[in-house]
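Late entry, written up from scratch paper. The run itself happened at the end of the previous shift, but nothing got recorded in the book at the time, so transcribing now.
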Amino acid sequence: MSVTVYVPSDAAALALGADAVALAIAGEARRRGIAIKLVRNGSRGLFWLEPLVEVAGSRDRLAFGPVTVADVASLFDADFLNGGAHPLSLGPTAAIPYLFMQRRITTRRVGLVDPASLADYLAQGGGVGLQAARGLAAAEIVQRITDSGLRGRGGAAFPTGIKWKTVLDAVADRKYIVCNADEGDSGTFSDRMLMEGDPFQLLEGMAIAGLAVGARQGFIYVRSEYPHAVAALKAALDSAQDWLGDFRIDVRKGAGSYVCGEETAMLESLEGKRGIVRAKPPLPAISGLFGQPTVINNVITFGSVPDILGQGVDAYRDLGCGRSRGTLPFQLAGNIRFGGLVEVPFGLKLRDLLYDFGGGSRSGRPLRAVQVGGPLGAYLPESQFDTLLDYESFAAIGAGLGHGGIVAFDDTVDLAKQARYAMKFCAIESCGKCTPCRIGSTRGVEVIDRIRAGQVEQITLLRELCDTMIHGSLCAMGSMTPYPVLSALNHFPEDFA
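Output as recorded:
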């Protein structure tokens, strides 16, 4: 009887040599005449342990890592297939503290299932939500999503149920479901991990949305930098069409524009046009893709839906705090000791995430600042590390959770330089449609350069420019670029002196 060995095919694991490790394990097993079943699973999100090799034991999966090609022969010598002791042995995977302390809902099957196998997905509890939705009226599905308190996980945190009800109530011959998988924020990778490690979960969430609003066509708009995610989604769709019924999903690849993460620019790109922002109203829920009512959510939002329908509204709503219900997969990156994916209910302190999970800075120096919410997120000083990780608490300090990406910096960081980076990023990535964003970001770089050269009196001008961008820009690209700039000015004024 063969033993099942799991080696991740996740892009992060591949970058750390997972393919070579998988080939080495298969080759060593053949040389020794040992029968194994090699499964390429998704990453568990413990990136400092990748490549993380798992062996299906009699009760638990046993983890070994980080494994290199040079370690493979010694693993076989130690009889790791039967739980033999080895210096790389980590014990049962589920008992690793980094994983044990989490509450994985949306990513519960990432790393557990074979992402290419629908049968494995269904055997691990997938499909229950879609089956339940097929027995409900459309309005009842929408009501359950509304009652769960689920809000969009893409940054704006708009209540998902309200968006879906708007599309349901719209009168049209055709409606669409669009997944925004243009995950372009720095320090974010949860969308990619779900698409590569559990693509059927995303497909199931979109199919439920189609039942909820009366749509029969869905699109997944994936950033061009995610070739492995595109391949995983297409492979999953090839085997899932009968399961999805009359709901069709197509994958579309973006061309590398950050602004196409904004929903209306994404719609323009999907329609084959240049990706520039549309004026609102009308909202996409009324007039979206090809002028038809359209539900637009991101990967983690759709990925949250099957659990709500399958496990019950109360089970999801009881997690979190205040108006922030459920869980969010946070992503730890930057100067952090243990970078990776951490899914927990809303309400944990930022400090606990940085130290209990992240282990502090990788350099060993004090953490001075963290940027939460991507390149347009605010820089938070150590004095704000006790802020609760929920939408309202972050809004109260002039920040946002965004997509849950967290980039850490130690005390060697120059926040004036980081502020300049934010303005320069906007100048490069702006679609150019509105003047405050297109021209303001370019002038912002120039003003910051003058300040860094000693003209500190220009700080007043920089603040006025930021105010103009916030209130005059057409979309979040321009209106949020001042967030990192102003937070750096407010919390780290010494860097501008």
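The longest strand covers residues 327-334.
(Scratch paper discarded after transcription.)
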